[in-house]
Design brief:
- With 423 residues, the chain is mainly α.
- The chain has two domains: 257 residues, Up-down Bundle (Cytochrome Bc1 Complex, Chain C), CATH 1.20.810; 106 residues, plastocyanin oxidoreductase (Helix Hairpins), CATH 1.10.287.980.
- The protein contains 18 helices and two strands.
- A two-stranded antiparallel sheet has the order 1-2.
- Helix 5 crosses helix 11, helix 6 packs antiparallel against helix 9 and helix 12 runs antiparallel to helix 13.
- The chain starts with 11 loop residues before the first helix and ends with a helix.
């Protein structure tokens, strides 16, 4: 998809730099002349939104780290100091805390878009796997960041989640002791989490570079799932077409983000986390942040501790195997009527698990969680079977035909007409 470079240095400085470090050429080929499918919709803007959010999280996080004290006796007060005494500290903190939630909103939309349009299928398997790795790193980073305010929910959330590693045979207790820095969640734990929370975003940025590199090598998927056949007809330059669309989507997303920051900054937080951590007082109901709730519900649905941990981890890791689980040759579920129905059922199951994760571990919530957990994993089994028996709708002959409506509109129609022509 990258093709031959069209960049032409215009000044002597540009020619001098291009001969020694062609960084301007790289930027031009990646963000100006790079060909993108002409039928991309607004769901494709979330990739750009995620890059913007990552940069925003790193910048606000670095500035907050300048004023934060990773000490169990001072962490809570240092957060209050940021809110009350640091110039625009309240804004930085709300941008960072709400930014984490908006980051996950964007990444979940990005994942579901990839699921619906088959963006995990060949030749984009490595691109998809890198995306799953980014998702795992995001979850680890967010969890460690949630512990840093050292409120009640931070402390007990860290206690519960780190304890899960003890279920792993042989190495479990060693991992827990390493994370704790001792035999309970305390000051060494906070120091470890602060260090890792500072480090992991830069690891995410590195994997994002690989993700974008893989994307530019194989080219973007599109709503039809039909690969580019004619670059001139099927694609348009990234700038101005995709950049304007990305900018519009980003502005709309930022308006929602700004509404939370300025009008509902604590909406997605938990009230108990505004109480200093107290190891002697356990909250009545320990819950993680909302973006962990579906996986937390799966964890609690399994009566065995090790089984729950494996099911929770498997619910994420199984996404990496989608390129081989889905047996259909057709990418986009727009043309797969049965798979499309299962997809929307899967979306409802995920929302249901998120709701149940916020509920107490009582009946009927536990039983319903078990049913939805079976349905969650059943979706992947269904994809393997549906691909064998499903009869997809006819595909467009090209991306251009799907947009402009060509005379040879559908592959299926052309295939059906071939025997008649012979006759």
């Amino acid at each position: 998809m990258s093709g031959h470079s069209t960049y032409q240095p215009k000044t002597g400085i540009e020619r001098w730099l291009d001969a020694r470090l062609p960084i301007v050429r790289l930027m031009h080929d990646s963000a100006v002349s790079y060909p993108v499918p002409r039928n991309l919709n607004l769901l494709w803007t979330f990739g750009g939104i995620l890059v913007f959010m990552l940069v925003a999280q790193i910048i606000t996080g670095v500035i907050l780290a300048m004023h934060y004290t990773p000490n169990a006796t001072m962490a809570f007060n240092s957060v209050e100091h940021i809110m009350r005494d640091v110039n625009f500290g309240w804004l930085l903190r709300y941008l960072h805390s709400n930014g984490a939630s908006m980051f996950f909103v964007a990444v979940y939309i990005h994942i579901f878009r990839g699921l619906y349009y088959g963006s995990y299928k060949a030749p984009r398997e490595v691109l998809w796997i890198l995306g799953v790795i980014i998702f795992l790193l995001m979850m680890a980073t967010a969890f460690m960041g949630y512990v840093l305010p050292w409120g009640q929910m931070s402390f007990w959330g860290a206690t519960v989640i780190t304890n899960l590693f003890s279920a792993l045979p042989v190495i479990g207790e060693t991992i827990v002791t390493f994370l704790w820095g001792g035999y309970s969640v305390d000051n060494p734990t906070l120091n470890r989490f602060f260090s890792l929370h500072f480090l992991l975003p830069f690891m995410i940025a590195g994997v994002v570079v690989l993700h974008i590199w893989a994307l530019h090598h194989v080219g973007q998927n599109n709503p039809t799932g039909v690969e580019v056949k004619d670059v001139k007809k099927d694609t348009v330059p990234f700038t101005p077409y995709a950049t304007i669309k990305d900018l519009f989507g980003m502005v709309c997303f930022m308006l929602v983000f700004a509404w939370f920051v300025f009008y509902q900054p604590n909406f997605m937080g938990h009230a108990d986390n505004y109480i200093p951590a107290n190891p002697a007082s356990t909250p009545a109901h320990i819950v993680p942040e909302w973006y962990f709730l579906p996986f937390y519900a799966i964890l609690r649905a399994i009566p065995d501790k090790l089984g729950g941990v494996l099911a929770m981890g498997g619910a994420i890791v199984i996404l990496a195997f989608l390129p081989w689980i889905d047996t259909s040759k057709v990418k986009s579920m727009t043309y797969r009527p049965i798979a499309r129905q299962f997809f929307w059922m899967f979306v409802l199951v995920c929302i249901g698990l998120g709701y149940l994760g916020a509920m107490p571990a009582d009946e009927p919530y536990v039983t319903i969680s078990r049913i939805l957990t079976v349905l969650y994993f059943g979706f992947f089994v269904a994809l393997a079977l549906i691909g064998i028996f499903e009869r997809p709708a006819p595909l467009p002959t090209s991306i251009a035909d799907s947009v402009l409506g060509g005379s040879g509109a559908r592959l299926g129609h052309a295939t059906a007409a071939a025997p008649q022509a012979k006759g």
